[in-house]
Specification:
Mean pLDDT: 81
Structural class: mainly alpha
Number of domains: 2
Number of strands: 0
Largest sheet: none
Helix content: over 70%
Number of helices: 9
Radius of gyration: 20 Å
């Protein structure tokens, strides 16, 4: 994945800058592909449908206000395109009650996945905001720009040991903040991700 400052992703994407659009694609492709595959029952057309989702995003004329809104748009578009595809397949084949039931179940799962992912992104953002300034800088350089400890140390003018200590503290602090989340399944998902 390309290194890009998160502050420039949304404005960059709104201007259709290649780095920002590539970052959005590389970041969200796996989850969009998972949603499409589940709804379409691993259709061989899944990759084409995912491409349609991203083409639809790129054709949007209105600007997005946040990464979260871009993600919502992608998840909703993936669901709609996949369900449209399945409805078409249903017409082409037979009107199977099992297929209808499967489509409804997959739609509910896709919506739930999108909601959990959005809640996760929001929770991570809130947790990052609780970090002390230098610790937050280290965390963002490490996980959004994917810099190594030595690179972060050189950029901030601190020792590699200080960078390592900030990362450990950031993990502990974020796990504590995330532990306060109300929803049990959200805590479980975040616990797996931050292990």
């Amino acid at each position: 994945m390309q290194r890009i400052s998160k502050h420039w992703i949304v404005p960059g994407f709104n201007c259709r800058e290649p780095k920002a659009t590539t970052w959005i694609y590389e970041t969200y492709y796996p989850s969009i592909f998972t949603i499409v595959s589940k709804i379409t029952m691993d259709s061989p057309d899944a990759e084409d449908l995912v491409a349609d989702v991203f083409v639809t995003l790129l054709r949007q004329k209105s600007d997005f206000e946040s990464i979260r809104k871009i993600a919502f748009f992608l998840y909703n578009t993936a669901r709609n395109i996949s369900l449209g595809y399945m409805r078409h397949q249903q017409v082409v084949k037979t009107k199977s009650p099992e297929l209808i039931e499967h489509m409804l179940k997959m739609e509910e799962e896709a919506v739930r996945y999108a909601e959990l992912n959005a809640a996760f992104q929001h929770l991570i953002h809130l947790a990052i905001e609780t970090l002390p300034p230098q610790c937050k800088q280290v965390f963002l350089l490490c996980f959004t720009e994917q810099l190594r400890n030595a690179q972060i140390a050189a950029k901030l003018g601190i020792s590699e040991k200080t960078v390592a200590n900030h990362k450990i503290y950031a993990y502990k602090r974020m796990r504590m903040e995330i532990g306060r989340a109300d929803h049990a399944s959200m805590r479980a998902i975040l616990g797996m991700i931050l292990i």
